[in-house]
Design goal:
The complex is a heterodimer. Chain A has 11 helices and 8 strands. By secondary structure, chain A is α+β, with helices and mostly antiparallel strands. Chain B starts with 17 loop residues before the first helix and ends in a 6-residue tail after the last helix. The mean pLDDT of chain B is about 85. The chains are: A alpha+beta, B mainly alpha.
């Protein structure tokens, strides 16, 4: 009896290196990869053939060519003599400006809606519910069309425009607003305001740390006063700054001076932020309601007011629930800027997959560029929000 | 002996119960909320009656453009006049019964879903999954079953919206299940492919996928092989939503306890048997609310096909607004309000259904 081989009932037999399922797994994967490669080869060969037959160039050389079209809304200097690459950059900046403003507006509006949704005031809470259910159940494209074609385009012309105190004008040419022209002193004062804000934030943070460490509150109101009012005002008078307002005025058929948000931009911004704000509002509501009621009751028992409870107890904890779905909504807003191409806002799709594609016929390259852009933006938003999430989760309560 | 000494219980004063108390508690809990209530009430009084006037009382319900210009309200006459086009697109009038019949088939198969207990419900659902698209396509397109062929460029309106939505829903689910299974697969090659596919499609907007389907798909095909424009759009919609669906299904798969897999393996089931008969039925049941929410998103996304030149409900309303015989501001607004209400009714009822399901499915887990 080969005793030495008997390791007792507990030892499992050592699995052979090539078990049946292992071989099958390798075979399946090998087959899959071969099929995939063959498919890609087939598609590529077809594409090459089709492109050659239609006489379309391939590669990204076209980016150096003269674009030959104008862009109505451009936050970079661009004219028809620029290259396609310049047009691409202009489109990127336009999209990013729209997305950033949209995210800021949607967050502001969404948090307001979410807080209104949990308000003890029945009327306010009902109105917020109506807002959420209305705007999130109507396709965004339809909302964009509505704002652009039904609201902003039919507005009266510049001569009959709506105005606020003769300084802000809303007409079918867009929203004209006064533009402050800062001299060097005023720019310094603005800088002082930023420095003061950072200073006050720093002081508030160290006060918070002090309170967390010792339990004693430190007054910070005067630091805010100094940072936000004292420092800028002092700089203002020290440098003898002056600020001139360029107020839009009607000259001929349109306004001169001031700054303008064109209807395409305004409609895109309104549509995107109102639509996403509905989703954000719902996220904020579920985040706040996800906090155990005991937290609120304990804070009430300690004599905090409703505002304090929200600010110091509920919202900080709710942020942990809110941030992950909020990230999805921000990504969705950034992706949905592509719909603004349907109302003639010059963003990535209308410039790259629209005009450039039509002019050069290079479908592969242009669509790949557009996709690459959205991929980058999505990853960037995810990275930033993950950082915030890490910050929020790190604070243990 | 009657107890004459005990007075009958008094009713609570009306300031503690009843409508007055409700108003005090919910509208005027303190002076700030009270002020807010008054301001909001005033705003409502200023906005709601004019809105009702515009929508109903001052609206032009019948007639032509001149009636609408004369009326100070909405122009429902436009919707009235274009109703056929809004629903059927450019589908030939004498063949519209085929659209009606397909819609009826669709409604019937949805009704089966709602019925609480039918014998072999699972098989009926699976069967209608396969049969519904075939029957509807045969009816709508015609051809093999002896009906006159109606090419897809005549399709449009609400009917096209439904076609894109249903194709997206039916196509996305199997693609999503396969991708979700692949993402959790033990085989690296398949896992990497599925993760790349899912993350790529989730990171780009649907428009780029639709552009890819409409511009690049023809380039991929061998010479002389042409694919219908609508079919290309449907492929794009199904692939895009399949990737979204994969993440929903993955959530369900992750919620299945490991013991289920082990028990199935111990019973001698292979991978597919285990997935089809043990894991997926449980996983899909838990994610039904998420599934329905994805369906709401699919319905809203159908509007994007107008960008690549198909006339869905929004596209056809848009075209009607721009037509020269109905050029008027009130027509524009009314057209969008009509289309908006149509989409809203669909999406709102679906999302309510999802909430109802969520409540119903949670009963076993609630404490």
């Amino acid at each position: 009896m080969p005793v030495s081989r008997d390791l007792g009932p507990m030892a499992a037999p050592k699995p052979a290196f090539w078990t049946r399922s292992r071989i099958r797994s390798v075979l399946v994967q090998f087959g899959f990869v071969v099929l995939l490669v063959l498919l890609i080869q087939f598609l590529l060969a077809n594409t090459m053939q089709n492109l050659a037959r239609q006489g379309i160039a391939s590669g990204f050389g076209f980016l150096e060519n003269r674009a030959g079209f104008d862009i109505a809304i451009a936050f970079l200097d661009f004219d028809r003599n620029g290259t396609y690459l310049d047009a691409f950059w202009t489109a990127i900046v336009n999209t990013l400006v729209l997305a950033t403003l949209g995210i800021a507006l949607a967050t502001l509006l969404g948090f307001m809606i979410g807080l209104a949704r949990v308000s003890p005031n029945w009327l306010i809470s009902r109105l917020a519910a109506v807002y959420i259910e209305t705007f999130r159940n109507i396709p965004l494209l339809l909302q964009l069309f509505f704002w652009y074609f039904a609201i902003l385009r039919p507005l009266p012309g510049p001569r009959q425009s709506f105005d606020v105190a003769g300084t802000v004008f809303l007409s079918n040419r867009g929203l004209y607003m006064p533009k402050p022209l800062l001299d060097s002193g005023a720019q310094l004062a603005l800088l002082a305001l930023v420095v003061g804000l950072i200073f006050a934030l720093f002081m508030a943070r160290s006060a918070r740390r002090h309170r967390a460490a010792t339990g004693n509150s430190v007054a910070v109101a005067h630091w805010w006063l100094i940072g936000l009012v004292g420092l800028p005002v002092l700089t203002w008078f020290a440098t003898g700054a002056s600020v001139e307002m360029s107020i839009p005025s009607l000259q001929g058929f349109n306004f001169r001076g001031g700054m303008v948000i064109l209807p395409e931009m305004l409609a895109a911004l309104l549509g995107l932020s109102i639509y996403i704000a509905a989703a954000v509002g719902e996220i904020v509501r579920s985040g706040i309601q996800g906090i155990d009621h005991g937290q609120t009751e304990a804070a009430q028992a300690m004599g905090h007011t409703r505002g304090q409870i929200m600010r110091y107890v509920v919202i900080p904890q709710a942020m942990r629930i809110i941030i992950p779905p909020l990230t999805t909504q921000y990504q969705s807003l950034a992706k949905n800027t592509s719909l603004a191409s349907a109302i003639a806002f010059p963003e990535i799709i209308s410039i790259i997959a629209g005009t450039t594609l039509t002019q050069t016929g290079q479908a592969m390259e242009t669509i790949a560029l557009a996709m690459l852009f959205y991929l980058t933006v999505s990853l960037f938003i995810a990275a930033v929000m993950n950082f915030f999430n890490w910050r929020v989760m790190r604070r243990s309560f | 002996m009657t107890d004459t000494l005990t007075p009958p219980p008094l009713k609570a004063p009306s300031t503690v119960i009843g409508p007055l108390d409700w108003i005090r508690k919910n509208l005027f809990p303190d002076w700030r909320q009270g002020l807010l209530t008054i301001v909001v009430l005033w705003l409502l009084v200023r906005t709601v009656p004019p809105l009702i006037d515009w929508l109903f009382l001052d609206a032009a319900w019948a007639g032509d453009r001149d009636d609408c210009v004369a009326a100070s309200g909405a122009c429902w006459a436009f919707v009235n006049a274009r109703w056929g086009q809004f629903i059927y697109g450019f589908y030939p009038v004498e063949h519209r019964w085929r659209v009606d019949l397909s819609m009826l088939t669709l409604v019937a198969s949805i009704a089966v879903l709602f019925l609480p207990r039918v014998a072999h419900k699972g098989w009926i659902i699976t069967g209608s999954f396969v049969a519904l698209p075939v029957i509807c396509f045969a009816l709508l397109h015609g051809g093999p079953i002896g009906l006159e062929i109606v090419p897809t460029d005549r399709w449009g309106g609400f009917m096209l919206t439904l076609v894109v939505a249903v194709a997206g829903m039916l196509g996305a689910l199997p693609i999503g299940i396969l991708l979700a299974l692949g993402r959790r697969s033990q085989m690296p090659a398949i896992r990497i492919f599925c993760v790349t596919f899912i993350e790529l499609f989730r990171a780009v907007p649907l428009i780029t996928v639709l552009f890819m389907a409409s511009v690049m798909l023809p380039l991929f095909m061998p010479q002389g092989f042409s694919m219908d424009k609508l079919l290309r759009a449907l492929i794009g919609v199904a692939l895009f939503n399949g990737a979204l669906m994969a993440e929903v299904v993955r959530g369900g798969l992750q919620a299945i306890p490991k013991g289920q897999f082990e028990a199935a393996t111990a019973s001698g089931m292979g991978y597919w048997k285990m997935m089809i008969f043990v894991v997926l039925p449980q996983a899909l049941r838990t994610v039904i609310p998420g599934l329905v929410n994805t369906y709401v998103a699919i319905i809203k996304d159908t509007t994007l096909v107008l960008i690549i030149g198909l006339f869905d409900l929004l596209g056809i309303v848009q075209a009607g607004i721009a037509s020269s015989d109905w050029l008027a501001p009130s027509v524009t607004t009314s057209g969008y309000v009509f289309a908006g209400f149509g989409f809203w009714a669909l999406c709102f009822s679906l999302s309510r259904y999802s909430m109802y399901l969520e409540g119903k499915l949670n009963t076993g887990r609630q404490r």
